[in-house]
């Protein structure tokens, strides 16, 4: 393991870069920070467990607020879900995943048993509603 695990190497960046949404051509304000640097800033904050506002500017990753906004933008566009699937597929193809230790729980997969039942609603009218009889 490297001493600076937040640095993204070229091979990993080649997987991530095509997943990122393009930056608008005519965006207001200064030229945006490079996506790769923002990703490294995000990884630094997560690895070092520091607050966004404590991201050191000397590292060249931009401000914590810039990195946080980029993280939010990427999360909303589904970048990390797609990256997760790609990395799982590559690890599986390389035989690096042990599926005997896989676990599925209700927080990730919705369990449905039988047919769905309509929810009973409390009547707000003076007489009984059809769904409360």
TrEMBL record:
InterPro entries reported for this sequence: IS402-like_dom (IPR025161), Transposase_6_like (IPR052909)
Species, as recorded: Streptomyces vulcanius
Protein name per its UniProtKB record: Transposase
Record region (Disordered): 114-133
A Pfam family it matches: DUF4096
Domain Insertion element IS402-like: 9-84
């Amino acid at each position: 393991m490297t001493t600076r695990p937040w640095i993204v190497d070229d091979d990993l960046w080649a997987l991530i870069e095509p997943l990122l949404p393009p930056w608008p051509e005519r965006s207001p304000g200064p030229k945006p920070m490079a996506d790769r640097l923002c990703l490294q800033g995000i990884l630094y904050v997560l690895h070092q467990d520091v607050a966004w506002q404590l991201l050191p500017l000397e590292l060249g990753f931009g401000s914590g607020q810039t990195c946080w906004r980029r993280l939010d933008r990427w999360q909303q566009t589904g970048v990390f879900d797609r990256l997760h699937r790609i990395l799982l597929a590559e690890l599986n193809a390389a035989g690096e995943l042990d599926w005997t230790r896989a676990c599925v729980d209700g927080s990730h997969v919705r369990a449905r048993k039988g047919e769905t039942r309509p929810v009973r609603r409390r009547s707000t009218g003076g007489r009984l509603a059809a769904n409360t009889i």
